Amino acid sequence: MRLPGFQTIKENLTVKDILFSGAPTAGTYTGYLNGYLNDYLPEWLIENPTIGLALTLAIFLIIMIILYSVNNEAHKKSLAEILANSYFLNFSGKLTTLLRQGTDVAFIRSSGKWVVKPGQLKLEIHLPASKEKLTQISSAIDQQTEIAYIDSHPFVEPAWWIKIKVDPACGKVTILETPRILFALPNYLSSDYTPKRSKKLHSAFNKKFTRLVEDHPDKIPPASRFEIVYD
Questions:
Q1: Which ranges in the chain belong to alpha helices (H)?
Q2: What whole-number distance in Å separates Cα of residue 7 and Cα of residue 3?
Q3: Environment class of residue 179 by beta-carbon count within 10 Å: exposed (0-12), middle (13-18) or buried (19+)?
Q4: Span 74-79, average pLDDT
C-alpha cells in the first residue's frame, strides 16, 4: 500500500484537528486507559513517565490516522460532487435548450448540412460506476457515434459539437454523453483514483448528479427526450 505524501497529509489534517481534536482526545483516553490498567499492571509501571508518554503518543497517532481517513473521504466525496455540479450545469444549458425548443435543429455533418425534427432528438447520458467503466463507455461512444456541429444560431452561439448516433431506419438521432470530466480526477487524487477506490467516487458523483436532475426538472430535457443509463 502506498503511503500518503506530506502534501496529502497536510491537506487532510489541519492544525485545528491536531490541537482541538487529536491532543485533548488522546489525553482523555490515556486517563481512562490508565485507570483501567491500574487493576492489571504494577503501580511502578503505570506511574513510569516514559510509559505514559509512549501510551499517549500511540493513542494520539491512532486518532490522527482516523481523522485523516475521515477527512480524506470527505474531501474526495466533495470533489466528486463539485464535478457533478459542473457537469450538470454544462449539459443543462446548451443541450436542454436544444432539446426543449420546438423548432427543427440543423446539424453540420461531414456529409453536409442536415435538418432534424425536434421529436427525433434524444439525449442519453451514461453514468459509469468506476474508472474502468468510464474508459470503456467513452471508447464505446467514440466508436458508435460521429461528431456533428450544431448550427444553433440564434438561441446559442453557433457551431458547437456533440456526438450523435443516427438510426438510419427512422432517422432518429441520439446524443450520447458520459461525464468525461471525471477524467480530471487523477490530477487531484493521484494514487487515490484506482479502479477499486474509484467506485466510491463515481457513486458520489452519480448520486449528486441524479439528485440535481430530480431537484431541477426545469433544467433538463423533456422525459421523452432524456434518459440516464447507469453502467
A1: 6-12, 15-16, 23-37, 43-46, 49-100, 131-144, 185-189, 198-215
A2: 12
A3: buried
A4: 82
What single DSSP character describes residue 190? Answer: G
Question: Checking phi first, is residue 139 left (phi over 0); if not, alpha (psi -120 to 50) or beta?
Answer: alpha
pLDDT digits (tens, 9 = 90+) for 200-220: 889 999 999 999 999 988 888
C-alpha cell at 201: 467516487
Looking from the CA of 65 toward its CB, the CA atoms found within 13 Å total 7
Rounded CA gap, 9 and 64, in Å? 10
Band of residue 184 on the pLDDT scale cut at 50, 70, 90: confident
Distance CA 15, CA 8 (A): 14
- CA 204/CA 211 separation, integer angstroms: 11
Give this prediction's pTM.
0.71
